[in-house]
Amino acid sequence: MNRSALTTPLRSSTGAVASRLEPALLTVTAAALTAGGAAWLTGDEGLADLLWGLGTLLAVPPAVGWVVAALRRGQAGVDLIAVLALGGTLAVHEYLAGVLIALMLATGRTLEAAARRRASHDLSALLEHAPRSARRRTATGVSTVPLSEVATGDLLVVGPGEVVPVDGRVEGAEAELDESVLTGESLSVERPTGDAVRSGVVNAGGAFELRATATEQDSTYAGIVRLARQAGAGSAPVVRLADRYAAWFLPLTLAAAGTAWLLSGSAVRAVAVLVVATPCPLLLAAPVAIVSGLSRASRLGVVMRDGGALENLGRARTLLLDKTGTLTRGRPRVVDVLAAPGWQSTEVLRLAASLDQYSPHVLAEAIVGSAHERKLVLSVPSDVTEEPGRGASGIVDGHRLSVGRFDVPGARPPWARAVDNRALLDGAAVAWLAVEGCPVGAVLLRDPLRHDAARTLRHLRTAGIERLLMLTGDRAEPAREVGAILGLDDVRAGLDPAGKVAVVQAERARAVTVMVGDGVNDAPALAAADIGVAMGARGSTASSEAADIVLTADRVDRLADAAFVAVRARRIAVQSALGGMAMSLAAMAAAAFGLLAPALGALLQEAIDVAVILNALRALRVDRTARPALTPAAEELIHRFASEHDDLQDVLETVRGAADHLSDGPGPQALAAVEGAHRLLTDRLLPHEYAEEHELYPALAPTLGGPESTATMSRAHTEIERLSRRIATHLRLAHAEGGLSPGQLDDLRCCLYGLHTVLRLHFTQEEENYFSLAQ
């Protein structure tokens, strides 16, 4: 079944019969061959022929059914040769040859069925998410009505956590919405009065009123379901690899058999030609290679719906990726903590996390998680309240705190304006911390890139992908920044589900296209692509069901590994099929000249089958070129240093904060900030860099091709150490002079900002090039 399963129910009865028929036929033919062999060994040749003939006869009806089914689809399948060979062996009483052909045919069909198992691409998740009713406000109050009764202009009430039932506009209080179901963006957005709201999004704040601007059928979410159905129906079924060669192999076989009969006058020769031409290399080699590829991919956490998905992935030349959850982590993370004068960033984060411990908000979870990563000791809050859309407030350590939005009356202080500027430049959300009503700090949050994203895209290009595009519902500015960092060929921002489908269809006209996504909003685009890939570890059920490939691990680099597996498996499948056909052609020539009897030809054909199957099983082996093989010790070191990178984020922030303090002049606070940064450098950062240089890099060098592969990263270590020594020299001069001098400020500031930049780049390079190698 292809992706048209999105529009039609499973033909369960037919599928169930087929799933039972092929294994049953394999069992019967194997039993007939074995029992007949036993009878022949005991000298009862009549019984042996009877059993072999019965096994051959039982294979004829299903074989004819398969041929008829193929002809109805407009495919002149190579199974027709097997049917003719079965009939020929019965006609000339070559029963052993017949049962051997029946066994080969049953084996091929069973293997092919295993390689191309179909799964239902239903829309259960989409339908479960869709609301069935709405709360309509009238002059007499609020009543619940079926969604089909909602008309344009009705005033609806949407409660906290409810799905917006139809497209409309916000009335009254502003709405805080989780629009990830449509845009994929994990951050909630605020819609003021009069703003348009699309159906399918979730109310992440307090109750609000919505003026309906469309009916159920005309609303956005209903359109998503229709788009997925239309895209699925328009996707062509994958043609079996063997049938691509049938166009010339089938008539060639019939011509050779007919010519042998005409020239020799012997029907046995014609049957012998058909027997050795029975296309088991085509029926077996390709499915075995594909099944082997599927098995290998599954070990990598890549589940494919059928062999057609693997085959198409091996031919793909264009890759389209959603941004959120695919190229980015899909959840906001703390990227910086800024403090007001007199406050420390670690204390700002600790207090904010203490208050947010009991909040289910996605930003609160990120703040608390960041505090735990930095091993901060959180206090127990009391009298905690949370106002949807504004944040939480409560008492921590005897002080009244609030975290979230903070509207300062009048002009903001300089440090707060700097926070606003940083948030704008970085495309980050801001959670303000206020103590006793006074803002003292801010936490900046953003959905960061995956560490493995750049490496994955490079590997995909190596695997044959020629064009990489990103599709996102996000704003153009952050989308273009991601595209520039990753070296994408094109970026399409501000797309709704219909826009994504349109881009996918346009790219499909150029080349075999892969679409990767993780949300319900991606399901139509996944179904429209030649190969849809869903991030199944945390993605929506709907995107997984609309996809051909599901990544069970939350790692997009697995797709690059799967692409290598697909290319290799497809190449081996073609090699096996063509090699088997070449040997079959040689055997056909021998049979046409009377050098092979049908039974001997059947045995020879079995030998050819074994050869091509053994070759096809090479697809199970690991391709070392796809991913370097790490030793267990090296992988353990990678995990250790990756964890240390997370722990050292506060060191980077302190270094930058010290440089910022120098802008206020060479006072005691500036000197204290530089001293604090230097202590962290000496106690934590430099030992980490030394351990990387002397433990991690030597462990990685054999895998990466020698010490030269890590030379540039070692050079970064040298620069980090040089800048740290320079900062230490400035501190010695300051202590000798009784404080920082104005002449030191420029160079010291350059050292601190430069060190911060080098460290960020160095950490990113290590995470991308080395840490992404770990499983």
UniProtKB/TrEMBL annotation:
It is a multi-pass membrane protein. The keyword Magnesium does not apply. It holds the Pfam family Hydrolase. It is found in: Cell membrane. Keywords: ATP-binding, Cell membrane, Membrane, Metal-binding, Nucleotide-binding, Translocase, Transmembrane, Transmembrane helix. Residues 129-228 form the P-type ATPase A domain. The chain crosses the membrane at residues 24-43, 50-69, 81-108, 245-264, 270-295. The keyword Zinc-finger does not apply. Residues 637-773 form the Hemerythrin-like domain. It comes from the Bacteria. Signal peptide: none annotated. Belongs to the cation transport ATPase (P-type) (TC 3.A.3) family. Type IB subfamily. This is Heavy metal translocating P-type ATPase. It comes from Streptomyces sanglieri.
